[in-house]
Amino acid sequence: MALRRFQYRDDATVDDYLGALELGVLEDETRRSEKQRSGSAKAEVFGVGLGGDKGSLQAVESNLRQNAASKFEKLFRLMRDSEPKEFWDLDELDDDTWACLERGSLINLEVSITIPSVSRALGAAKDLGPLVTLMQAFTDTIDDETARQMTSLAQYGSSGGSEIASVVGASMAAGKYKFICKLTMANLLVPLESLEGTRFLFGQIEELIPPGQRELAVDMSGLGIMNREARRKMAKKAVPPDQRENFVTGPAAFVHVIAFYK
Fold first, then answer.
1. pLDDT of residue 148
2. Rounded to an integer, what distance in angstroms lies between the CA atom of residue 36 and that of residue 127?
3. Do 115 and 196 form a contact (C-beta atoms < 8 A)?
4. N or C: which end of the chain has fewer CB within 10 A?
């Protein structure tokens, strides 16, 4: 069995799915086994001493406690071995396979992860507090809309930044297929910047992005600066070359990530 090293794992979702498949989550499991116990025996026949070993079986019980990694492994195997299989193993990806995917599809594939520069900046937003406070001292010299945005940014930073981050995974089998991966910061098992590189993605598709349609690859919902419609309009405008990493063009998908692993 190949052991997995997790960089991100959504344990709450794993428990939900495992509980739905098994009508509950088993926290402890008792295993029973038998082992051979050896001993010696002596006897005398017609005045001649005979010796030898005799064996007996001894029942052994052990208590096995499930942890987060073992629960994931159990869920993965249940879904993989079911008929029909509960998720798509996308070792190969082409237009015909892509056309079969839909909202709610569970996928497992190897991806190359990049972190948009805006995601990096939002991850460090809590460190911007002093700068924004200084800028707010001069709000009488700026327009109302800019002042409102600065106030939103200040509140965002003072609350500790976003609980959500986004990274982009490109299929290793066919790089034109990309996945905007939504992450909950509390589920990260490594620093966000350490996610870059090749990983396996196990997750669920939330929305498919048609070929040619462009979407912002960064979750900015917590900022209060732009609503969804404003973000959509931004994605339709011409994108400067130095900002292209913050956008993704379809075929692509928004994905709720259950795990990144190696």
1. 64
2. 63
3. yes
4. N
